[in-house]
Amino acid sequence: MPDRQVPNARRMTPPATRATSRVARVMFWTAAMMCASGHAHADETLPLQLSGAPYRIARDAYAAFGEHRYADATASAREAIRQRPDVVGLRVLLANSLAARGRLKEASHELSDAIAQLGPVPALISRRRQIDTSIAGGGEGHPGGGGAGDLQGPALVAARAAYRDFGKKDYAAAARESREAVRLAPQVERLRYLLVDSLAASGDDPAAYAAADDAARRFGENNELRTRRRYIGDRLAPVESKAAYAARANGDLVEVESHARKAVAFAPSRMEFRTQLLETLFARGDLAGVEAAASDCIAIDRNDALWWTLRGYARAARGANADADFAHALAVAPESLSQAGDTRANVGAQADDENDGGAMSVASSALRNQRQSDAASAKTSADPSDPSSAMLAGSAAVRHRQRGSEATDANVNADTQGSAMRADPTGIELERVLIAEGDARRAEAAASGENVMFDEADARRANPSIAGVTQSRGNQATNDVASTSGEAASAAERRYRDARVARTIIADVRLAQNRPQAALDALPSVSQRNAAALDDADAAIALRRQRAKTMLQMAAAAQNDIDPRARPTFDCREDRYGASCDVYAHDPALADTRAARLAERDGKHGEAIDHWRDAIAAVPDDPQLRIALIDALAAAGKAREASKEARAAIDANLLDSMSDLQAAFIASRAGERQLALDRFARAERSGTLPPGAQADAGYAALSMHRNEEGARYLERAMDRTASAPHADDALPPQAVYDARAAHAEATRDWGFSMNVNYRGSGAQQGFAFNPTPGLSSNWQAGAEAYWRPFGSLGDRMFEVYARGYENFGVQGSGPSGASTLQAALGARVKPFASVNAIFAIEKILPIGSDVRSDWLARAAYSTGFGDTRRLDVPSWWTGTFYGEAGHYLVNPSTYATANARLGRTYRIDSISPRLTVFPHAVVGVDYDSAIDRSVPVGIGAGVAARYWFRGDGYDTTRSFVDISVQYRVRVAGDDRAKGVFFGAVFSY
Q1: φ, ψ (nearest 5 deg) of residue 908
Q2: Where are the beta strands (DSSP E) in 639-734?
Q3: More confident residue, 740 or 9
Q4: Co-location of 863 and 763 in the same domain
Q5: Do residues 872 and 822 share a domain?
Q6: Could you report how far apart the first and last alpha carbons of the chain are, in Å?
Q7: Residues 170, 116: one domain?
Q8: What is the domain range of residue 182?
Q9: Do 129 and 20 lie in a common domain?
Q10: Cβ atoms of 511 and 357 closer than 8 Å
Q11: CB within 8 Å of 334: residues ≥ 6 apart
């Protein structure tokens, strides 16, 4: 019948029939559009498989239907079907739209066409039967709808009032009137639907669910009632689940079980509520109940290994044979992520399409989608600097100590880094990248009030930490910290993770039965290739593998009973959707682990350390807990205790339970450098050593003075980063710069310098001059070559050297020119790693006639801050102190000199980022026993300029030119304290 004929047809229809028509329209709308909130939302009624244009069109169709624009709904539904003729829900929507317009025969015809095209889908057959029954009975298309004569008198009046109030969205009044109508006409089924819908829309879900149950008992089950109970149950189940949590807090496990069972009854397809029930039954020790509840889960999804495993565990703990359940669990457990798939979700979506025309598939998935969205948002908002987040991320790129350089990682541009490294033979482009990073970081720090620092000298100090290589100990440590719940992962990832947990639980049973080989056969592998990719089951798997291997090496023991206290661990949390549960293999350290992570997040290092110690007491053979404790001690600045714990882990033979990379860092922390290098080498041979760890291996080798090996590690780290700058484990620019600095120092075996000084030690610090007794206001020029016979010794040093010097421009009648030419052969040593003190002894060899042969013993000490080039800021404060004393042994004479400088260093980027200028104030003190016993003291101002050069792809700058000039005024002593002082040095 054309649309324009509908008004005439309605005028020819008796009033009672028109009322029935209005009733049917409302009921069609409520049946198809009812959702968890009691209001119509188009997004919640679309089948999951729709996307793109069909999704948008179908959404418009559902929205039009909900707004009673049935003609628009019909048109949109037809267009959506044209694009996606395979979606059952769209066919039902079209039929409902036509029926709501009074075009019942056309609706039946459309359903017949759909059945012919898609097959005997129950949803299509059921809906067509309802419409055909209504046509045959002279009524509208709704189950249970009789003709106009089935409602008369007060019942008809009450029904009309109820429908009218429902249309006005006065749901409370509609509920009262529909309840009265049901009382007056209990045989009319459609009034029961009106009552259920009114109660649900008014927010009285318990009464609505009870009304739906009552209707099912009286008239039998049908899709209309099942759909309503599902929607209402999805709202009631979280309430019961939360009540179970409240009862659990009070210790009333009986009440907990009661509420948990009600949650399952209200939402039987929601597996999180079934998991909550299983946890409660385990807590009560009701293994028979666990077996029954797990069987119910298996009935829903026979391809989920976790349910088979839990049932098998319950049977084994009761002394029954669980081999069949475990065998089935292992058979269905996916071996890889690509094999995993949420079979229950797929089957459920198909069944929902068949039974409910697609509406239920959307409603049942809406909660999953929202929870995933919430969890993803929480994960995105987690603080990346959070120590617990960083550790659980499993990053293997552990960096050596740098003052503040960790802040440079935040804004790394991989493209810029990669191009800078590949086409930067001098290294200056990388420095420009770091300067730009420093500018951005400085602006950010200014906004946050932070002070970010980086000192180039720290690149030469290796102090590896193990923070960041700790394998994740499960979501239990992150759910409260960063909300990284399993629901945020895809269904396949979740199923794969649960299957690995199931295998671990089976291994626990086999170990309890003293069947270690069966445990090993059940356990999956643990990949060491990418620590960041480890899931929260890997640590438990590795621990069980080690236990099984240890048991295999021991004599056979008798089979033990399953300890009911060693049951699987459930981590259930309350959220706004009710229960959210994760299952783990038995873990008595779970509570302490979570508490420790939370304490670390809040910066409570002492509290975190205590919790880690308690966790270790609960599971002493778990290496991951030892690693976490060592990390916590290091973070608290307790390096000595961290080293002690690392040594204890080695003594407990726990290294074999760790990855090679973890074992390397533990050994390094314990001071076992050779063992650390061996583990680094094993990791490299197995292909599990990322660039960051290669750099750490290099630093470890350098600390043992194995410079060639260390340099090769650093080179490989830089090469891999240059070839794949986008890789997750690539070194950031700052770490590349640090590696270049360490490489430059490690490969420096010799060098030479030339210098020119006026007035001796006045301007230059260091052994840049050769003092001549009795001379003060003179020029001196010289050159020196040195060699390191043992190579670089890290923070220590030993060098032999040869130098030649000449004095000229000497005031008065003192010797000058060629007659003062002298040579020296000597050795110097820096024996302390933490004290910058140098001792030297040299033989003076006369060349000119005015030089006497002698031996000179010298000692120097220096300290300061900001005395190396920085790349994070354009200028910085610098303070230095240098003091030196020497004694001529053959012709006794003693000298001493000291000076202190304080000023600000500026990097002159407009010319070159390698040029710095240092204006400063200076205080100088000199003493020479060959002149007099006075101690001249002068103060003044000066400026120094230094230019660095000779950098390449593996090394930072290794040479410089330095020029300094000062003017001082006398404070004490003779005139040696005042005047101009000058120095120039070329160091190669």
Answers
A1: -95, 80
A2: none
A3: 740
A4: yes
A5: yes
A6: 99
A7: no
A8: 152-221
A9: yes
A10: no
A11: 340, 341, 495, 496, 499
